[in-house]
Amino acid sequence: MARSLGRECGTPRSGLGKGGPSRPQGPQARCALGRRCTVSEKCRCPRPGWTMTPPRNVVKIAIQMRDAIPQLIQLDQAKPLAAVLKEVCDAWSLTHSERYALQFADGHRRYITENNRAEIKNGSILCLSTAPDLEAEQLLGGLQSDSREGRREALRHLVPLASDMTFAREVISRNGLQRLGTIIEDGDDLGEVLALSLRAFLELMEHGVVSWETLSIPFVRKVVCYVNMNLMDASVPPLALGLLESVTLSSPALGQLVKSEVPLDRLLVHLQVMNHQLQTKAMALLTALLQGASPVERKHMLDYLWQRNLRQFIYKNIIHSAAPMGDEMAHHLYVLQALTLGLLEPRMRTPLDPYNQEQREQLQVLRQAAFEVEGESSGTGLSADRRRSLCAREFRKLGFSNSNPAQDLERVPPGLLALDNMLYFSRNAPSAYSRFVLENSSREDKHECPFARGSIQLTVLLCELLHVGEPCSETAQDFSPMFFGQDQSFHELFCVGIQLLNKTWKEMRATQEDFDKVMQVVREQLARTLALKPTSLELFRTKVNALTYGEVLRLRQTERLHQEGTLAPPILELREKLKPELMGLIRQQRLLRLCEGTLFRKISSRRRQDKLWFCCLSPNHKLLQYGDMEEGASPPTLESLPEQLPVADMRALLTGKDCPHVREKGSGKQNKDLYELAFSISYDRGEEEAYLNFIAPSKREFYLWTDGLSALLGSPMSSEQTRLDLEQLLTMETKLRLLELENVPIPEQPPPVPPPPTNFNFCYDCSIAEP
Question: Does residue 525 contact residue 483 with C-beta atoms inside 8 Å?
Fold first, then answer.
């Protein structure tokens, strides 16, 4: 067995330790390997098969320095970092080790501190550089240089280091933000110096050491100027937009300043520039301004943006752009979609007011659009009671649960939003609306699909699927391209959904009691189709209508099997191997049930089941024993049963209409029930063929007896009960066999067997004794 040699082997000069062979003691005694070890030491020689493993707190790394040969050292993580630096500097003959620091050589070149030194792994490459406090002092001094080239060079070195927290603290503590702010406010150089200053300022502020609210108003206004003016350097506007976004999200007061100083038209101009970074930052500031606005201001801003065709531009030039969309842009489009749908929340939270004249008129418009106001058109002389009765009946036909529809719409959510959806459907798809209502009015009451009740529940469902009224996530990117391809997307989606509800209702042949089940299926149809992210409403309509009720059932079954792992080829192979054993177990259970026996009823010539008889299988499975018995009597013993039928004489098992005792023609319900429970055994009685006829007391007993008799005859057990029992046993046995593989993915194909090695010289022959 291999052992570690990261510690002393503990073998004294005298031998291998306890129970080991003794060794001659002397100034230079031999160790276990025959080597001479000093008397004052313990043997450190490796044994055959032992491996070298360094201690856990020691890592092997390389350290670089410009114009020097790299050092390969073993870094002891328990040793203070100052002591490590001292050893590294001594190896290169450098004095004043406190002036140096270690950095990661790749990535962001972060400084190594006591807090992050655990990130150093075996094989890491570090570099020796100037300490962060001295580096910060030197670079900030360069920012005050009279030479533009000197400031540019200092900023070029400052920007990559600004993302490091250790360096950022040193810069901020030396008023580095104020110095950068001065360069930005002065605006003497609108080119690379300004871009580098903005980038360094953003990196330093992102650490959260200084609050965004501490920024001065003149500074923010100067950055706004960089957004509003046309600059030659294309790298400045995205940085200025990013800075204003952070200001808007972090400080409400300064956010109002940005909102008043940056016109929406200017942001639209930036969005139309075919520059991915500029578009992303402009969209980021736009969504930040919308999030900081009040609901009324947000509605005005979004209405103005839609009037300026922002939705069409996003759909054509961002969503369908040839360049791939970044994660940041996807997040901002998600926020814009969520804020736009959030405008529906007030209607969703407002119940219908039965005393509001406008809302009452909207209900009447909905009713009149469905029915040709028979009373009002054919005769205006209807009494008030007659008119109210007619309206109540028509509202019932519309699918309202109450004669007064206001009571149905008092529920929030969806409140008035459901009424808005129904009115939109009736006005924009009048033929589909009339067909829906009239088609269901002609059905039986229990089979009609209630339009109003379905519309109310569908509105709730859409609000849940589209997260209407929920706060925006800070990381989500789940926007729907279809939303930007269609005006009034929520109402249009409702129009598709309500027709889908009627279609699914007919496919399920549902009744009023099945309403909740139908809505669950419709929810699944809509959710599955939305997850596909169709790019247009027509594509959504096509896909959701193709997802029929039968297809939903098939998908559910497939997903359940995949979840249980029963469709993986290795699992299917395991199930096939288990089947014979489990079928034997089912056969044994069926025969035991026949041995217990069952009480059957005889049928007279008048189809009256008025006599009882008992039948069972003998324990040795060689005889069927049966005989008459009285109702209410205890089960008879085998010895008391007068009749016997040897299993060897049985020829065939007959079921249903093939049985001789139910062959008489008849179409009554009683005959149909007898067909389903009847079975017979044909057997040899001398030279004649005779029958032993049964009528099972239940469908389960029918399955058990026909399976048992088939087993006795050597025929396959093919009943529905056998299929269910086998599936249940296979599922249980498979789960038990795979219990230790829980949460372990099973590959579709077995891993390939590697080819054999070219030789087998690596084998160790344990039979050879050590010298």
Answer: no
